[in-house]
Amino acid sequence: MSWRVTFFSQPCVPEKNMQCKITLFTAFFVALAIALSPLFQRIGSSFSSFDGIGVPSPGALPCLKAGRVMPVSSAAADSLKLASGRTSVNLGGSRTGPVKWLLALNACPAKMAGEPFLRSDNRDMVEFLGGRGRYFSYADAVEKAGLLRGSLRGNSPQAHAAEAVLGALAVYEQAGVALALRLEGTSGCLGTLDAWHEAMTEASAELEAAEREKRHPSLDRLYRANRYFQFLQALVQVEEADPNVALRVIPHEGSYLTPAAALLEKNLSPAGRTALKAYAAACDAYAAGDESTAAETLRQLSGELESILPMDSFKLHFEHCINALEPFLGGFLLYGMSLICFVVSLFLKRRKALLHFATVFLCMAVLWHLFGIAARMYIQSRPPVTNLYSSVVFAGAVASLFGGTLYILRRQLPVAAVACASGLLSLLVAMNLPYSGDTMGMMRAVLNSNFWLTMHVMTIMIGYGSVFFAGFLASYHLVARFFGQGEKGLKAGACGVCRILLVALFFCFLGTMLGGIWADMSWGRFWGWDPKENGALMTLLWCSCSLHARLLHVCSCQGFLVLASLGNIVAAWGWFGVNLMGIGLHSYGFVEGGWFWFFLFVGLQVLAAASALIPQRSR
User: Fold this and answer.
1) Which one, out of 71, 174, 287, 300, has a CA that is 20 to 30 A from the CA of 364?
2) What is the 3-class SS of 195-247, one letter each residue?
3) Distance (Å, whole) CA 442 – CA 617
4) CA-CA distance, 257 to 45, in Å (whole number)?
């Protein structure tokens, strides 16, 4: 089988020009449809009313969460994913987006309490709570909250599961009072505002009368105001205890408040009063079953706030559109389709049309991947790598861009397949990382430097991405021995991997040195044998040893490919493994869980490297 592809190497003959153009245009429009498929799902459904991308849109309303002003769609999706592990839920038999979910939670608290969308991966815990599968309802869990708090002691799986369930309950409760409130004895959210105003007016009048008449105020006339005040103050104390969970949507003097804090604010701004009434009216309309009025009320509020508040409304709308577009999901689908086309083409004699589709899919996937990264950079006003999630996305983009460029230049099918697999795997890992909050959240103080995030973090991630690309390409050539690849193909593969590892070595070395300079400026020492630093050094040394073994002819081409393949394990440990350990100064990169998937990856790489020990299949 020939492993060199002549895609676009020869121009189409005149009589086939039209056929080539039709194939390419068809492939482009199919790729575009795949890339936009997440957006198409929102058109013509309940998503369009509350989570649609029209202007103005309810989902683009401003909200302050975890120190960052974001659209309500981002804040609601963040809360929903923390509570249920998803960014949409099924309510009443239909798929519901995060904005509508948040509105329903505030408008119909009794009904939503019985909806089983809270999640726990501990099946025993779900069974204990009375749920089914992995999901349970708030009503199920809140009845046993006391028992859950009592089981927090120790380091057992049940203790961790109980802690996660209590965290989900806290997120649910904060989201349930994010837009409007219902005070006891009032009818609806607007009725709550009227009752609070009446109670405060009555209490103020009584206090003034008592002071004027020089008597003690009547407790009966102060009772209702005091009861409401204590309830609101308790809500505010809960919000302040966990400020990263609370959603603040009421604008006030350059910042944002929760509805409870807004009601306690004596001199609430005009924009705040407008928002408070609009959210209350929208909740009442939704509770009455009038979704269109609720959506229109929120759209009008969005337009009013844009004209009143000094905010970057374009950036809010842009982020809301990116939430609907989901470029990384579209890129994931395109990488998958491209990989399938490339793999199938290996077994076809007449494969030119299929290679056209595969190449267009790969190009579109890389562009969509890079567009998603560029969008995050614009929204954050930061370099592309700021946390573990963005580092995975960026490293995958480096590998796929590297591979896609090499494929266009050298027209080698293995390089294209590895580029697709690298992008696919990176986005798959990123979408399934343990979720701990907004992936574009506020930076920790030690990372709050755009210069060093660009110089050190981007550089080292380019190095890691190149190491993984070289390792995957080496694994491909080792496995391809069983499908007819001869010694010539093995040597060509070793030469290509060697060149890629040279690039990886340069960026790993440069990134490690720059990291030491940053550490000296931040922590007062260039090198401290921190686990993360040791991981970078291990990767650097492994690349150096592999290249020396190749260039000095210490090992054969096959042995060099084995070293390059095992380099993925070293890079994975230096990048992910030390994060899973949870020790060291680089605490901003820690994640919980993931050991199973890490060792599964290690096992697969060991199997790929060990395949070199099996005799090559005779051709």
Assistant:
1) 71
2) HHHHHHHHHHHHHHHHHHHCCCCCHHHHHHHHHHHHHHHHHHHHHHHCCCCCC
3) 55
4) 32
Q: Name the 3-class secondary structure at 64.
A: strand
Q: Which amino acid is residue 614, in one-letter code?
A: I
The answer to whether 536 and 578 are in contact (CB under 8 A) is: no
Question: 208 vs 217, 431, 562, CA distance in Å?
Answer: 9, 59, 86
Rounded CA separation 230/225 (Å): 9
Residues in contact with 379: Cβ distance below 8 Å, sequence separation at least 6, in sequence order? 315, 318, 319, 322, 440
Distances (CA, A) of 214 to 205, 223, 508: 14, 20, 79
Residue 387 is given by DSSP the state: S
* Number of residues in the chain: 619
Burial (Cβ within 10 Å: 0-12, 13-18, ≥19) of residue 62: buried
Q: pLDDT tens for residues 364-395? A: 999 999 999 999 999 998 889 888 888 899 99
Residue 171 to residue 359: CA distance in whole angstroms: 44
CA neighbor of 397 nearest in space, from 408, 384, 382: 384
Determine the Cα–Cα distance for residues 390 and 255; give it in Å rounded to an integer.
28
pLDDT in tens, 544-588: 999 999 999 888 889 999 999 999 999 999 888 887 776 666 655
Rounded average pLDDT per 10-residue block, the chain, 619 residues: 42 61 88 88 65 81 92 93 88 84 93 91 88 89 86 80 90 93 87 91 86 81 86 91 90 92 91 94 94 92 86 89 92 95 82 88 96 94 86 93 89 88 92 76 65 85 93 90 74 90 94 89 84 90 94 90 94 84 60 75 90 69
Q: What is the DSSP letter of 132?
A: B
Asked if residue 328 lies in contact with residue 369, where contact means CB atoms within 8 angstroms, the answer is yes
Rg (CA), the chain: 29
Alpha carbon distance 396, 366 (integer Å)? 10
Instruction: Decide: helix, strand or coil at residue 524.
Output: coil
Contact 580/598 with Cβ under 8 angstroms? yes
Q: Three-state SS for 62? A: strand
Please state whether the predicted TM-score (pTM) of the whole model is above 0.85. yes
CA–CA dist 575, 429 (Å, integer): 13
d(CA 285, CA 135): 29
